[in-house]
């Protein structure tokens, strides 16, 4: 299942390419490419037309997202911020590459 905002996706023309698609710290998480399966936990990634908002706005948008709900159903406890952090720490080759948690989301800036 794809959300449509991946490169070449059906929603790119309307909403642009999702920033999660270039978020390489989460590459391989739940067999996804870059942040593709971690989008709900990546700071600054909004699926709505606004592309901006508060963390509360993002949580509402994700809760209404079919992709998010499918991931949550399929992967249950493995689909969480804590499991993403563990994935990053395990695979991080460049130990100097920094990430931090900002308003409950992963950020690499």
Structure overview:
With 109 residues, the chain is mainly α. The protein has one domain (12-99). It has helices at 12-15, 55-63, 66-75, 81-91; strands spanning 100-102, 105-107. Strands 1-2 form a two-stranded antiparallel sheet. A hairpin with a 2-residue loop joins strand 1 (100-102) and strand 2 (105-107). It is globular and about 35 Å long.
What is the overall pLDDT average? 79
* Count of individual domains: 1
What would the principal axes of the Cα set say about the shape? globular
Strand composition percent: 5-15%
> Span from first to last CA?
28 Å
**Count of runs of 4 or more consecutive helical residues:** 4
**What is the count of β-strands?**
2
Walk across the major sheet and give the strand order: 1-2
Give the helix/strand class: mainly alpha
Order of helices and strands: HHHHEE
- The percent range for helix content is 25-40%
Biggest β-sheet strands, sense, barrel = 2 strands, antiparallel
List unreliable stretches of 5+ residues: none
Radius of gyration: 13 Å
Give a brief rundown of this model:
The chain is mostly helical.
Task: Summarize the SSE layout with pairings.
Blueprint (H helix, E strand, L loop, with lengths): L11 H4 L39 H9 L2 H10 L5 H11 L8 E3 L2 E3 L2
Antiparallel strand pairs: 1-2
């Amino acid at each position: 299942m794809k959300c449509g905002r991946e490169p070449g996706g059906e929603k790119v023309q309307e909403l642009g390419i999702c920033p999660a698609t270039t978020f390489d710290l989460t590459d391989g998480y739940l067999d996804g490419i870059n942040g593709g399966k971690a989008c709900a936990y990546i700071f600054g990634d909004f699926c709505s037309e606004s592309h901006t908002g508060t963390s509360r706005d993002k949580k509402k948008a994700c809760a209404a997202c079919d992709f998010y709900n499918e991931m949550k159903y399929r992967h249950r406890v493995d689909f969480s911020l804590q499991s993403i952090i563990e994935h990053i720490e395990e695979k991080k080759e460049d130990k100097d590459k920094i990430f931090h948690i900002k308003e409950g989301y992963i950020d690499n800036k």
